């Protein structure tokens, strides 16, 4: 699927900032369908990859137009110095006052999926904090990657324990593959439209897109870029 008009947020000689559409792959995948990267290169020439968004995820995407900027941004992402904020619609009633903290390490799973590096029964909730017990963290059963996310209900005045869905603002501190999708699914709040980590056969899970959007990104020395929530 080609994007007829590339949704640019910002551009200069060193940087492109794209409002990536949902349901468009950034890079070529096994389907062989048209991808955003080839379209960007056809329009702007030589480009340098900095970070990625899943096919279903929309929103702010940085693309370097120089090797120097790619190096700077790659170092910033690796140092967790880039601040990222996402919006998501999740399934399930939620009781959350203030900021929630998800501190659950990830490990590779089956069929290109990721999972929490512990059984679901080992996940503990202490107030607004989801975590593993100290013994589980000290003696992991297999290699794992520390992963930390924060979340807040966007409309706390309208949210209710009986709500079918809730709108969240998410801030991943680490940048693991599928981190937000895995964290939310494993604590019982899968993202609407997430057929990989949610409940693909459940009627309430169905949606025309993954309801996950890169809303704002702040990079040191570059600035802050915003893509308003599309729903």
Notes on the structure:
- This protein is α+β, with helices and mostly antiparallel strands.
- The protein folds into two domains: 8-81, Pseudouridine synthase; 88-212, 2-Layer Sandwich (Pseudouridine synthase).
- Helices cover 15% and strands 31% of the residues.
- It has four helices and 14 strands.
- The strands form two sheets. Strands 1, 2, 3, 4, 5, 6, 9, 10, 11, 12, 13 and 14 form a twelve-stranded mixed beta sheet that branches. The chain has a two-stranded antiparallel ribbon with strand order 7-8.
- A hairpin with an 8-residue loop joins β3 (48-49) and β4.
- The protein starts with 7 loop residues before the first strand and ends in a 5-residue tail after the last strand.
- The mean pLDDT is 91.
Which SSEs are present, and which pair or pack?
Elements: E1 8-11, E2 15-20, H1 36-44, E3 48-49, E4 58-64, H2 67-78, E5 83-91, E6 100-103, E7 106-108, E8 114-116, E9 123-126, E10 129-132, H3 134-138, E11 148-153, E12 165-172, H4 179-186, E13 212-219, E14 223-226
Parallel strand pairs: 4-13, 6-10
Antiparallel strand pairs: 1-2, 2-4, 3-4, 5-12, 5-13, 6-11, 7-8, 9-10, 11-12, 13-14
């Amino acid at each position: 699927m080609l994007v007829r008009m590339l949704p640019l947020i910002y551009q200069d000689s060193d940087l492109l900032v794209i409002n990536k559409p949902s349901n468009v792959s950034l890079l070529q995948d096994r389907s062989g369908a048209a991808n955003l990267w080839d379209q960007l290169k056809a329009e702007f020439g030589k480009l340098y990859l900095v970070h990625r968004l899943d096919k279903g995820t929309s929103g702010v995407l940085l693309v370097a137009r120089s090797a120097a900027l790619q190096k700077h941004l790659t170092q910033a992402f690796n140092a967790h110095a880039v601040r990222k904020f996402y919006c998501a619609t999740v399934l399930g009633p939620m009781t959350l006052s203030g900021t929630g903290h998800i501190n659950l390490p990830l490990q590779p799973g089956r069929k290109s999926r990721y999972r929490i590096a512990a059984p679901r029964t080992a996940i503990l909730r202490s107030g607004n904090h989801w975590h593993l017990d100290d013994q589980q963290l000290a003696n992991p059963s297999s290699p794992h990657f520390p992963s930390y996310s924060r979340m807040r209900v966007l409309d706390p005045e309208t949210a209710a324990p009986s709500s079918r869905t809730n709108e969240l603002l998410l801030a991943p501190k680490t940048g693991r593959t599928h981190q937000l999708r895995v964290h939310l699914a494993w604590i019982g709040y899968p993202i609407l439209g997430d057929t990989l980590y949610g409940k693909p056969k459940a009627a309430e899970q169905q949606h025309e897109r993954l309801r996950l959007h890169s809303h704002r990104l702040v990079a040191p020395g570059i600035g802050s870029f915003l893509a308003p929530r599309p729903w």
